[in-house]
Design a protein that fits this description.
alpha/beta, Rossmann fold, 7-stranded parallel β-sheet, two-stranded parallel sheet, 13 strands
């Protein structure tokens, strides 16, 4: 029987996984809010669906797997707002459902360690919205839900290289500020490992082994490019947008033992150095 996966929000991370599914003979469809995105979805062999159209509910009715890759807004989770009843009615038909969340649900831990058993203490608007969305998805009876809490995502065409090359990179230094990252290919392999070994009700931290200060990453990227690293700036006096500042509101080290032990994941890029070195070769 052909496996069929519907992806809500076929964006950067989901697309990396969708390519693997298509290569394995799956039927894959992904939603988008603009027909302008249709060609990039068709390019990877998936079917583009316009958000809110009848075709989406038809795919819900026939899918064996779902991935939710749409983040919540100030109004709540868009997928639940639009498709809750359809998904709830069909919950028992799905073999696997994945929800892409964020390590932001753990909040600020002053650089200390967290794992999947840690309390969810998010305080930013994004973190609180994710906590609420996780709970709402988890409350749907019989839905075989798997939650993936992603660290800072990077990969081809996404990461520090473009900032260094454009001259927009900054080295904002805040004492004890660290966070994990994850290469998009390692997100894809973790999702695939979960599909092959479903464990409904599980949550997984999807991150690398090395929680590092952001200025170190910029330094390393500049070094790989043969560029001069930008000067350091003190967080307390640096001029930043509210969005930029929010990234410095939380500092923590995230454990990823569970994806290794339970799913058998061996990270292709266990730290930002190996990830950036690989990306540099493709520039």
């Amino acid at each position: 029987m052909t496996k069929t996966c519907l992806i809500f929000g076929l964006g950067y991370s989901a697309k990396a996984w969708a390519k693997q599914l298509v290569a394995q003979g799956w039927q894959v469809a992904g939603t988008t809010r603009s027909v302008e995105n249709f060609p990039s979805i068709q390019e990877i062999g998936a079917t583009p669906l316009l958000w809110g159209e009848k075709d989406v509910t038809n795919w819900i009715n026939s899918s064996t797997h779902l991935l939710i890759s749409v983040g919540p807004t100030a109004q709540g989770d868009p997928t639940l707002a639009t498709y809750h009843s359809h998904i709830s009615q069909r919950a028992a038909q799905f073999e696997w459902v994945g929800y892409l969340s964020t390590t932001g649900v753990y909040g600020d831990r002053n650089g200390e360690w967290v794992d999947e058993t840690s309390n969810l203490l998010g305080v930013t608007k994004r973190g609180l919205a994710r906590i609420k969305a996780e709970a709402e998805w988890g409350a749907i009876p019989k839905l075989p839900l798997h939650i993936f809490r992603l660290a800072g995502i990077y990969g081809p065409n996404r990461g520090p290289f473009s900032k260094v090359l454009s001259g927009s990179a900054r080295r904002i230094v805040k004492p004890n500020q660290v966070f994990n990252r994850i290469h998009v290919d390692d997100i894809a392999q973790t999702l695939m490992a979960s599909v092959n070994a479903p464990n409904p009700g599980s949550a997984y931290n999807v991150c690398d082994d090395d929680a590092a200060p952001p200025q170190d990453v910029i330094d390393f990227a500049a070094h790989l490019l043969g560029r001069t690293s930008p000067p350091s700036e003190d967080f307390e006096t640096a001029e930043m947008t509210p969005m930029a500042k929010s990234f410095y509101a939380e500092s923590k080290r995230v454990r990823n033992d569970k994806i290794k032990k339970e799913l058998g994941v061996v990270l292709k890029y266990p730290d930002y150095r190996t990830g950036l070195e690989a990306l540099r070769k493709d520039l």
